Structures are given as structure tokens and as C-alpha cells.
Task: inverse folding
């Protein structure tokens, strides 16, 4: 409860419990905000993200995830692609930092 966070002097001066009632009213939106922040954090990771976000996460890592699939299969596809990306050799042809692209050789 929010009133426990206040210094004792404010609680002692709250004879009519107006402050306590106000803090109870404010506690509900704060709890909802805290839950939303927790869900946003969970949405950062494929293993805990909501199903709606799995195709978006797949796009970020280069996975073609079918939104029509159940969330468990979408997560499996995303995990497989992450493993494949992690196993790429650093000097391979697929390396984005090797200096070559569509423009040809660097001089």
C-alpha cells in the first residue's frame, strides 16, 4: 500500500483518512502500469513474448515466422533461427561486416 511509503508525519496528520483514500485510488493505476511494464519486458524475448509479437521478433533476426502457426511453433522457429545465427562463422560469406555488399569490392 502506498500509505506505508509515506513518512509517519503525513499519516498522523491524516485524521479524516482523506490521504489514505486518495492513495488507495492511486494504487490501482500504478499496479496496472507496473504489470504493463513487466509484460513489455517479457515481450523483449521470444521465449516469453506474446504470440502477436513473435513474427515481429522473427523479422528482426531474419526468421520467416508464419503468424497462422500456434505460438509454440512460432517460438520453436524463432529459437532455431537464433541457434543458426549464433553458429555462423565470423569470416563466412554471410557475414555482414566483411566489407562486401551489393556494391562490389572495397578499394
Result:
Amino acid at each position: 500500500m502506498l500509505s506505508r511509503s509515506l513518512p509517519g508525519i503525513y499519516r498522523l496528520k491524516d485524521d479524516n483518512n482523506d490521504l489514505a483514500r486518495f492513495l488507495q485510488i492511486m494504487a490501482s493505476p500504478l499496479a496496472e502500469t507496473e504489470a504493463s511494464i513487466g509484460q513489455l519486458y517479457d515481450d523483449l524475448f521470444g521465449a516469453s513474448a506474446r504470440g502477436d509479437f513473435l513474427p515481429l521478433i522473427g523479422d528482426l533476426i531474419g526468421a520467416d515466422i508464419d503468424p497462422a502457426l500456434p505460438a509454440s511453433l512460432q517460438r520453436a522457429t524463432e529459437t532455431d533461427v537464433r541457434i543458426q545465427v549464433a553458429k555462423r562463422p565470423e569470416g563466412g560469406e554471410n557475414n555482414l561486416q566483411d566489407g562486401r555488399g551489393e556494391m562490389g569490392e572495397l578499394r
Observations:
- The chain has two domains: 1-42, 47-87.
- Residues 3 and 22 are 9 Å apart (CA to CA).
